[in-house]
Amino acid sequence: MALSSQLLFFFSALGAFNGLFLALYLWFSKPFTTEKRFLAALLLVISLRISKSIWFYFDPTIGKQFLQIGLSACFLIGPFLYFYIACVTKQLERLTLHWKIHISLLCVIIIAVGTLYPYQSNVELWGVFYKLINWSWFAYLVSSCMLLYPTLSLLITNKRALARSDLVSVNVFFGVSIIWLAYFTASYTSYIVGALTFSFILYMSVSTVMLKTHHKKEMRYANKKIEEVAASELLTQLNVLMETEKLYKNANLTLGQLARRMHVSVPQLSQLLNDNMGKSFSSYVNEWRIEEAKQLLITEPNMTMEVIAELSGYNAQSTFYSAFKQFEQLTPAKYRHSILNNS
User: Fold this and answer.
1) Is residue 159 domain-shared with residue 87, that is, in the same domain?
2) Same domain, yes or no: 195 and 212
3) DSSP secondary structure of 106-141
4) Residues 207 and 253 in one domain
5) Each residue's pLDDT tens digit, 178-213
6) Is the C-alpha dihedral spanning 138, 139, 140, 141 positive or negative?
7) Radius of gyration of the chain (CA)
8) Last residue of a domain, one of 176, 198, 222
9) How much is the pLDDT for 138?
10) Those residues with Cβ within 8 angstroms of residue 179's Cβ, 6 or more apart along the chain or in another chain
């Protein structure tokens, strides 16, 4: 085999091999979702179809059984694309009876046709089947496009950034469409174009998703820490608010409520606490509650623990005990006893 043929074989087979590997990974990796399973099935049948094209191109004497497997897999590309897009667009979240019947009928057709009219003894008939399979594939492409239309319109109008699952589904749809076009026009170009197209599209799709994900991470962490001057002003505002209005006494206080009182966004307040104070929201609020409890334990020696817990901002006495011991390494009773005995 000449060097040019070896390179052609390598690059065309690369997509088929990676497609099979990715299909297995998606099928067996957690979490197990219907969306991932259909994407894995789609990659599997495309890889089988591509493998058949590669071997037939380089060895036209290949067994007819292998050609039959490749074309049977090709028959399922359109349906599996449609099922996958239906999952992404929430048209299909679990396999209902309707969808199970749809899939079962497709499998019955493949088995029945393959058994009654095997490729080896019906080569001309399978030439007709090949055309029908391509048009069936096209019909499912159109149906998938209709399901994906809202997502595509958002992409075209740039109304919002696409979620990762939407980005993947758009890449998969256009990739499968281009592969269909490559095979549909193979008589005018070359039979191996479909395999090369799949290799290129698989590489570009994975690269696009990875780059977009990496870009999001960079944007997320690029300016993570609030500037010192702004942070100092916000911290002063926060502490004054907590001290004067004693918001921590509200046992149901949430991060969102506190952010609204400060007139900042929830992410900004969370960022202020996490990055500039090194504390979580619950830890910050508990500090104020425990300080309040310590004052009550000293100034109100006859007040019960239940009342102190409630006045400090705790719904449950057990939560109060747990938080107090976490901060002071003593129970509230022992803390009161030690302070009063030393005074």
Assistant:
1) yes
2) yes
3) HHHHHHHHHHHS-GGG-HHHHHHHHHHHHHHHHHHH
4) no
5) 888 887 876 655 556 655 566 666 655 555 544 444
6) positive
7) 32
8) 222
9) 94
10) 46, 194, 197, 198, 201
Domain residues for the domain of 301 are 228-342
Show the tokens assigned to 136.
Answer: 């069936």
In a shared domain, residues 180 and 95: yes
Give CA separation, 150 vs 94, 162, 177, in Å: 21, 11, 18
Structure tokens at 277: 């104070």
Assign 3-state DSSP to the chain and report helix, strand, coil percentages, each to 5.
80, 0, 20
CB-based contacts of 192, cutoff 8 Å, min separation 6: 8, 12, 53, 54, 57
**Per-residue tokens: 296:** 């009550």
> Alpha-carbon distance 332 to 312, whole Å?
12
- 104 and 217, same domain (yes or no): yes
Domain total in the chain: 2
The Cα–Cα gap between 324 and 337 comes to 14
CATH number of the domain at 318, please. 1.10.10.60
- CA 2 to CA 10: how far, in whole Å? 12
CATH of the domain at 67: 1.20.1070.10
pTM of the model: 0.56
- Same domain, yes or no, for 148 and 260? no
**236 and 211, same structural domain?**
no
Residue 141 corresponds to which tokens in the numbers above? 């492409």
Strand, helix or coil for residue 242: helix
For the chain, give the mean pLDDT: 79
My answer on whether 175 and 286 are in the same domain is no
Q: What is the pLDDT of residue 225?
A: 62
In which residue are the tokens 């400060």 written?
Answer: 262
H runs (alpha helix) in 223-280? 228-245, 255-262, 266-271
